[in-house]
Amino acid sequence: MKRPLIEPRFVGRRFEDHTIPLELLRDLAVLEEFVVAVAKWIYVQDNARQRTPKGFTSPLTIALTAVNKGSACPAIAIEYEDPTAGLFPAANEDFFFRAAQAIGNAIDAAEHNEPITQIPPNLLGYFDRFGRGLRDGEILEFFPGNARPARLTKLTRRRLLLASQNEEITEEVTVRGMVPELDQAKMSFELQLPGGRKITSTVDAIHLDTILEAMNGYRNGVKVSVSGIARFDRHERLDSFEMIEDAVIIETNDPLARIDELRLLKAGWLDGIGLVPSKPEFDWLEDFFASHYPASLPAPYIYPMEDGGIQLEWRTANQDMSLEINLVELSGDLHCFNTQTMNEITDVISLGDPHHVQRLIDLVSKAARGEI
């Protein structure tokens, strides 16, 4: 017998084609463990027992049955094979529905900064794995269609974890740095972040050659981008990597690595008068290069400007190009100079307009091929 349990909704750019990336299926798999754990807790509370009876979950399973439209809505059902149930629900089925409701209510409380009392602190620790795959700007609505749909985001997940008993929090992150040390006997290495702080990580055989190459190039400034599951303390300070999923050598002037360095700037960096972009402005710039600037194009050199803006410079086959970006207005003054013909191109680029951004990309691409 099968009954719908819950149909949450993923909202964000990655889900617009009604698809769910495979990496997020790990989160949905954790949801089964989470619901079972909360169902057992509810049973114990209702019956004043220390534990659930043997076979409490044996006839029941939780399964993904479809991905429905509406951004991306995974239809999760409860299934059971209980020959004694007939046309009636299995004896413990109600606890699973109450568990799903309690999880959603906890998310809703966190979203609205209300006391999180629907689930005990130890079970809130499941949010360390459930919702970890969400990125900035993405939402998992637990009760889509409700006036308060209980929206799980990176922010609400952090609030839930801070209310748990977890001393550490894990996140899926990508960080960039250099490798000053590798211990092949222990299969571990140090990653030196911008600013000089070092964190540790284990390394498996798959990524060993990349980490070894980065270590050998340490004195020459070789940088590596490391993605995986990292541990943070309750003050959001990166502590170490729990697992590495990807490691690649990056260019010396990799835009994202350069932005990491610029984030360390302090006000007055230029003889006491230089302004510094705000965190949201740096976040926008990072998203621009991560999501909109093709990796196949030449990477620009990135410099801070006295007024808090950012200047991009490209040196291509026959062009010196620069773009002075006003991060408040998201506009840029473009200047191209052909070093052979002495011709100039000037333009104003609205970086919030996809057509203007595409025009910029086309110009950089043509300049790289020597076509302008």
Automatic annotation (TrEMBL):
It comes from the Bacteria. This is Uncharacterized protein. It comes from Pseudomonas pergaminensis.
